[in-house]
Amino acid sequence: MRTDTALHTFAARTLNITFDDGGDINWVDADGKLWVYNNGDIAWTLASMALVWIMIPGVGFFYSGLLRRKNALSMIWLSMMTVAVVSFQWFFWGFSLAFSETGSKFIGDLKYFALRGVLETPSIGSTRIPSIVFCIYQLMFAAITPILAIGAVAERTRLWPTIFFVFAWSTLVYDPIACWTWNSNGWSFVMGGLDFAGGSPVHISSGSAALAISIYLGKRTGWGTARLAYKPHNTSYVVLGTVFLWFGWFGFNGGSALSANMRAANACIITNLCASVSGLVWMFWDWRLERKWSAVGFCSGAIAGLVAITPASGYVGAPASVLFGFMAGTCCNFATQLKFIFGYDDTLDIFASHAIGGIVGNLLTGLFAQSRVAFYDGATVIPGGWLDHHYIQLAYQLADSAASLSYSFVMTTIILWIMHFIPTLRLRTSEEGELLGIDDTEMGEYAYDYVGLEQEIGHTLEINGGEEAQTGGREGHHHLHHHNEKTVDTESA
């Protein structure tokens, strides 16, 4: 029987791995070339992966709190469903389509189909971490993007078609945009576009898709005639979701350095600063109208700031991030009025927050990117933006933004209309289902057991026999009836 030491030696020999005095992993490829993987970088990237994962249910809670309570649970469920569907899609062919080195400038091939060959080889993102670490980290970006987009289906869609849509959209929209943005063969990457953590693949693509979904689905029943009926049902959920998102964004932006270095630290501090400034700016813009301080306004502004700083977080310094926050809080706040101007029902203002915020971040990156900031990791060399007198960079950023926005909108629309002509995949629910709520119609489960309360009181009325009990029952029934009248006022569509 082999000893533990012998087993470890055998495993290391099988993978051509040794360990140096500092504990770093030394891997020798088939050509005899030595690659060194830093354990600290691996640990930081894996921790950042977990931080980005927590953002996904954070989106679910954020969106759920903004909806009416009869649709609250389905949105949280959609966030968890997205993790599962995209995890399989990423294993099946998503990672290969986005990051295989042998594909085209637009999309990868199936070199890494079913994660074949994805383990100890150097990653396309950084040679300091193995491919398997880069793969699981990038999976979280792929998983969070569809839930950002499908928030647009809120309160008026069937759930099974949404599952299918997530798989199809990830394959046909997210993977190509991720490829041309981050893959070393991608056309935007080769051109010189700068996107540190996902301004185009994550935010512009999801925001544009949300607009396409909103236009395709049409307005919710009664939308535009009873706006008070669409107020957030649980502001605490909105705050909780924002906490998860803000917390996870340190891994989203800081982790994109793929190394525990000064560039990651800079990304973290400007992420926090930009979110803070943007939250305050949005809240002050809202205060000028209502003369009240809005928790939802602050949270919305913070998210807009996080979105805007995402593409720039590895390229700009702290002073620039203050301007990013001001512009994000201002532009995204005013962009929420576009749905009233053009008459589309973007339930959760996803286009305003993510597409507009992503474009603001991309364009400002073209102005304020600095080569010295990118070199904080000791390896990345870029010509910078306007601050470094590299004026063509703004044109690169504009081209990337326009391509991502238009491609996502057109391809999402095509997917939706193909599904429309397949009855089992048609997204829009019935009018009755919309009035009852998606939780009841599609799930039979509820975030709040008000249906169970009705059944419980009805059962009590049946078993109470005495006059006194009946009187009390009638009073209880009257109270419930009064409660239900208020529910109709605030929840009927």
TrEMBL record:
This is Ammonium transporter. Belongs to the ammonia transporter channel (TC 1.A.11.2) family. NCBIfam families: amt. InterPro entries: Ammonium/urea_transptr (IPR029020), Ammonium_transpt (IPR001905), Ammonium_transpt_CS (IPR018047), NH4_transpt_AmtB-like_dom (IPR024041). Residues 43-448 form the Ammonium transporter AmtB-like domain. PANTHER family: AMMONIUM TRANSPORTER MEP2. It is found in: Cell membrane; Membrane. Pfam families: Ammonium_transp. Residues 466-493 are annotated as: Disordered. It is a multi-pass membrane protein. The keyword Transcription does not apply. One of its GO terms (cellular component) is plasma membrane. One of its GO terms (molecular function) is ammonium channel activity. Gene3D superfamilies: Ammonium transporter AmtB like domains.
